[in-house]
Amino acid sequence: MLRIKHLLFGSMALLIGLFLTACGNQKVQTQPVTKLALIKSGQTARPRIWYHFSQAQAQVTANSAVNGIFVLQKGKATTYMLPTGKHQVPLKQLTKMSTANQIKWAKNKDREAFRTGVTAQQTQAANNIAGIKSDLKRLRKKQWRTVTNQGVTAVFEN
Question: What is the DSSP string of 52-87?
């Protein structure tokens, strides 16, 4: 009886394993994946420009703000971030420029934004350091007393 249980249990485990393996190996006919136009266009020596918008493609108009420019050339991509907020750049402004001028202009705007961001971070860091130094001076001037009770030490301001 024990032998039959083991044989029955083993054969069930084998059947379940075969069933799960068969389900995992089903081949579904899929269409071949084609390369993206973005990748194809960037393989040439001539620079190609793609624009990045914050809205859906169907909503893009000539007055839509461009957030960034992707320059594709010789299989390499370079991203330039453009001004946002009050200084947004509409698509119609960029399309009036040549490709070379767009790249040069976008590179300058990207550098400008980087420098502005770094300057703001440096100013914030300097303000934080000045605040910490003044706090340390204030704490050094205060008088402190130490109290130890049952192995626990506490520091209090006088």
Answer: EESS-GGG--TTPEEEEEEEEETTEEEEEE---GGG
Going by C-alpha positions, the residue among 15, 78, 24 that lies closest to residue 49 is: 78
Q: What is the pLDDT of residue 48?
A: 86
Type and span of the H or E element at 146: strand 144-149
Dihedrals φ, ψ of 142, to 5°? Answer: -75, 155
Q: Residue 157 belongs to what H/E stretch?
A: strand 152-157
Taking the whole predicted model, whether its pTM rises above 0.85 is answered as: no
Query: Mean pLDDT in each 10-residue stretch from start to end of the chain (158 residues)?
Result: 62 61 53 55 81 84 88 88 81 91 91 84 91 86 80 79
pLDDT recorded at residue 32: 46
The closest of 82, 80, 100 to 91, measured between CA atoms, is: 82
Pairing mode of beta strands 48-53, 144-149: unpaired
Q: What is the pLDDT of residue 82?
A: 82
Residue of 100, 9, 146, 133 lying closest to 154 (CA atoms)? 146
The β-bridge relationship of strands 48-53 and 65-73 is antiparallel
